[in-house]
Amino acid sequence: MIRVSSISEFVYCPAKMYLNCIQEDNIQTHQMVQGKVIHEIRRGFEEITKQNVWRIKENIELEHIFEILFDEVPQFIENISKKYASKYEMDSTLNDLCSDLEDDLKLESQFLALKIKKIMNTTKKRGNEIAEMFFPQTLLEFPLQNGELNLSGKIDKIEVINGIYYPVETKTGMPPSKGVWLGDALQIAAYALLLDYELNKEVLVGFVDYTKICERRPVVINSILHNKLFGVLDDINTMFEKQEIPNFNLNKNKCEKCDYMDVCDYYG
User: Fold this and answer.
1) 215 within some domain
2) Domain boundary among 97, 117, 134
3) Which of 5, 16, 34, 102 is the most buried (most CB within 10 A)?
């Protein structure tokens, strides 16, 4: 089956997607490991924050709210860093990455503390009520597949608000100046299609969380996006049927940022 996560790779570079699928887990570059670390820390941070919001009581100072929110986060980051450093032997790189991540998450916690303080001052809500505002019912790492579509994947997150399902993908790279990258939009559209087929839940809007700038951007799922998705799926199926990578334009800037730069025959 085509993995949904491979769709954005194909749009970025067909050779990258082909290598990923052929090599599977045989290639683990530093960039790949860093992506896994960021993803795991981000996911854990959200869960810790969600739990900590429940501990907040009324009439406490802003700094105390921040301390409650950020409690356990530095230790969690350190544990993840040690786990990956021992497995992949990349201590210094991971230390720098995790240090930067901790700074980013600290700022996010401070910003969230400010919003919570304002809500408490205005509405007198307690932590459990505020948690429901910031953290809707969520399905994490939810597996989806459909044999007819030859498509499968595990979506980062599905948020359920008033019975409506919203697929959410987390991306650690920089977004375009406006909107989302085409590959990211197609990935959301693919998950929306699987939700429609498997859970009978029509999805008209999804989101991409660009953690680099701490911004969520919407993806409107319409017929135009669906047509683009089916076109890409056809191209991917053809590529594997023929065992032949389609013609594409090499882009030096893309190649130098690619996880497969060291193992790709096209580069250099």
Assistant:
1) yes
2) 134
3) 16
Q: Cα angle vertex 214, ends 139, 2, to 5°?
A: 50
Two tokens at 227? 């047509």
Burial of 25 (0-12, 13-18, 19+ CB in 10 A): exposed
- Based on the fold, state whether residues 74 and 174 are members of the same structural domain: no
Same domain assignment for residues 150 and 247: yes
Name the pTM for this structure.
0.80
**Is residue 140 domain-shared with residue 248, that is, in the same domain?**
yes
Q: Where are the beta strands (DSSP E) in 162-222?
A: 164-171, 205-210, 215-220
Rounded Cα gap, residues 150 and 80, in angstroms? 34
Q: What CATH number should be reported for the domain holding residue 212?
A: 3.90.320.10
Domain containing 18: what range? 2-24+136-257
Q: How far apart are CA 265 and CA 253, in angstroms?
A: 16
Q: Is residue 169 part of a domain?
A: yes
Dump strand ranges (E) for 106-191.
Answer: 137-146, 151-161, 164-171
At residue 68, does pLDDT exceed 60? yes
**pLDDT class of 90 with cuts at 50, 70, 90:** low
| Cα 178 from chain centroid (whole Å) | 18
Output the pLDDT for position 243.
87
